[in-house]
Amino acid sequence: MVSTIVIAIIIAVIVIVVLSVVLGIALSKADFGTFFESGKKRAGRQGEQFAAQLIRGVLNEKDVLLNNVSISFGDKPAELDNVIINNRGVFVIEVKNYSGTLYGNEDDYDWIKTKCTDAGNIYQEPVKNPIKQVKRQVYILSSFLKLYGINVWVEGYAFLVGRNSPVRSKYVLDSINGINDAIHLGTNNNLTKSQKDRILELLSW
């Protein structure tokens, strides 16, 4: 029985290899990771790609966009979906692609996501409050930059792809106009070119 399973696995591997050669498909870890990723991860990745495309659409020649920036301050790590650096300041945009309806308040630790199936069944689960999450990211990024002598105001926003935020907040964006206003019409911190270059250098490690 075991040998039959082993033979079947070997045959399956050979078939995959042969097909990859014939079709010219380069099989990589990234390909397998994407193929087997969960629905949540896929939705998150697609939401990040969509938001990054919207952000690029409003950038001007003095804006720099960094994606998936990993930093830490002390024992606090953070993964920043989008960091925009321009003359006005430094901006963090955290992307959330939640399906269903969200319920909660700005200061709640978690929000509740509710979904109703076609059969009428209702499912609920807690999700992290993205406003609290982005505030944490702002603190970590600001503290990280201060370690290197850069004392600059950092602004943070959560972008809700599904436009299903339970609260109206200055920290929540849900449109391309909102993104543009946040990074171009808000507080002007008058960053110098040397400050911008140093921030870019630190976040590009």
Could you tell me the radius of gyration in angstroms? 21 Å
Mean pLDDT across all amino acids: 82
The coarse overall form would be globular
CATH fold field value of the largest domain? Restriction Endonuclease
CATH level 1 name of the largest domain: Alpha Beta
Overall tally of domains: 2
Low-confidence stretches: 17-37
Major sheet size, sense and barrel closure? 5 strands, mixed
CATH-defined architecture of the largest domain: 3-Layer(aba) Sandwich
Proportion of β residues? 25-35%
Counting DSSP H or I runs of 4 or more residues, the number of helices is: 6
Strand order of the largest sheet: 1-2-3-7-8
Describe the structure.
With 205 residues, this protein is an alpha/beta fold. It folds into two domains: 1-36, no CATH class; 38-203, Restriction Endonuclease. It is built from six helices and eight strands. It has helices at residues 2-23, 29-35, 39-58, 130-147, 176-184, 193-203, and strands at 64-73, 76-86, 89-96, 101-103, 110-116, 122-128, 154-160, 172-173. The strands form two sheets. A five-stranded mixed beta sheet has the order 1-2-3-7-8, sandwiched between helices. The chain has a three-stranded antiparallel beta sheet with strand order 4-5-6. Helix 3 (39-58) packs across helix 5 (176-184).
